[in-house]
Design brief:
With 314 residues, this protein is α/β, with parallel strands linked by helices. The protein has helices at residues 38-45, 75-89, 102-113, 115-121, 144-162, 174-185, 192-204, 207-212, 214-219, 223-227, 246-255, 271-274, 276-298, and strands at residues 2-3, 9-10, 12-15, 23-27, 53-57, 95-100, 122-128, 233-238, 259-264. The longest helix is centred in the C-terminal third of the chain and has 23 residues, at 276-298.
């Protein structure tokens, strides 16, 4: 457990060699936990002597981390939390950040609130099934009028849930909600393990977390922040993502210089679980690129032919 400045305790998992040339930090989505990334962690571990150090943590109010205060259930706070995690567990060396859904928005907040630190440390960026424009493009796969009604109901319900405290009575209703969640979160394919992990993450999230983060998520606007970044980046989205549809990823890729956009056919919102191979491949590519750049940066600069190695003092 890692205790943040305000006393909230984060459950942090660290794997990989301590002397790895690159550190990967994984940030999960709303009402999920670090297990979202289990297959990507396995893929990184299979890189052999080139494997990175991997940090995966449960966001405040999620998974095995402690509950958050309602006033701290914001993306801005999550960006500050990420900064604290990196300072504690990756105090030096290049970092590759990967974020799914709310985790991607957390990365954007980290970049916005800690720009100098972000620029100095982050050498690769993977944004999966996320948005930089709040709920601008979210239609839940419905016609516009029905989507507007659903959003209004969701917003009202989130406000009520946010004030309901850190308990989890919804766990008993999850089996009944399974078909609806299957439709909302997944595309053509949904392995039993993927659905079980997704349902488990939702069951662990207290009502305060389910409702409390909704306002901040819906209001975030960070395209300008992305436009100021200059680093290798990959943006992935499922063609059937009903929460953060391809339009979200397209605007991110258009704003983020040099970003590579991949739309995965037939996939939904839970890409790390639904299409793990594609997500893992993109992450491994970024890690390899960051490692090559780190090695290049460590090489001594050769003096120009005909120029002295040093100048004697007068």
């Amino acid at each position: 457990m890692f205790t943040l400045a305000d006393g909230v305790r984060l459950h942090v998992s660290v794997t990989g060699p301590t002397d790895a040339p690159v550190t990967v930090v994984l940030s999960h989505g709303w009402c999920q936990d670090r297990r979202t990334w289990r297959q990507q962690i396995a893929a990184l571990g299979e890189m052999g002597h080139k494997a990175p150090r991997v940090i995966a943590y449960d966001t405040r109010g999620h998974g095995r981390s402690s509950a958050t205060h309602l006033r701290s259930a914001t993306l801005a706070q999550l960006g500050d939390d990420m900064a604290e995690v990196i300072r504690r567990y990756a105090p030096a060396g290049p970092v590759v950040l990967a974020g799914h859904s709310m985790g991607g928005m957390t990365i954007m907040e980290y970049a916005h609130r800690h720009p100098a630190e972000f620029t100095d440390r982050v050498k690769g960026l993977l944004l999966v099934s996320t948005t930089a424009e709040g709920h601008t493009h979210t239609r839940y796969g419905l016609p516009d009028q029905l989507a507007a009604l659903m959003r209004a109901g969701e917003t009202l319900g989130a406000g009520l849930l946010a004030r309901s405290g850190a308990w989890r009575p919804h766990r008993v209703m999850l089996p009944a909600l399974r078909p609806a969640l299957r439709w909302l979160l997944f595309g053509d394919e949904c392995a039993d393990e993927a659905m079980t992990l997704t349902m488990g993450g939702l069951g662990r999230a207290p009502l305060r977390s389910i409702g409390g983060f909704r306002e901040s998520i819906g209001a975030q606007l960070r395209l300008d922040t992305l436009a100021g970044l200059d680093l290798p980046a990959a943006v992935l989205v499922g063609s059937r993502d009903r929460l953060t549809p391809p339009a979200c990823a397209e605007s991110i890729a258009a704003a983020l210089p040099g970003a590579e956009l991949t739309v995965v056919p037939g996939a939904g919102h839970m890409l790390p679980l639904e299409r793990p191979a594609e997500v893992s491949a993109a992450l491994v590519t970024l890690v390899r690129r960051a490692a090559r750049q780190a090695k290049k940066d460590r090489r001594p600069v050769k003096p120009t032919i005909g120029q002295p190695h040093c100048r004697k003092a007068a």
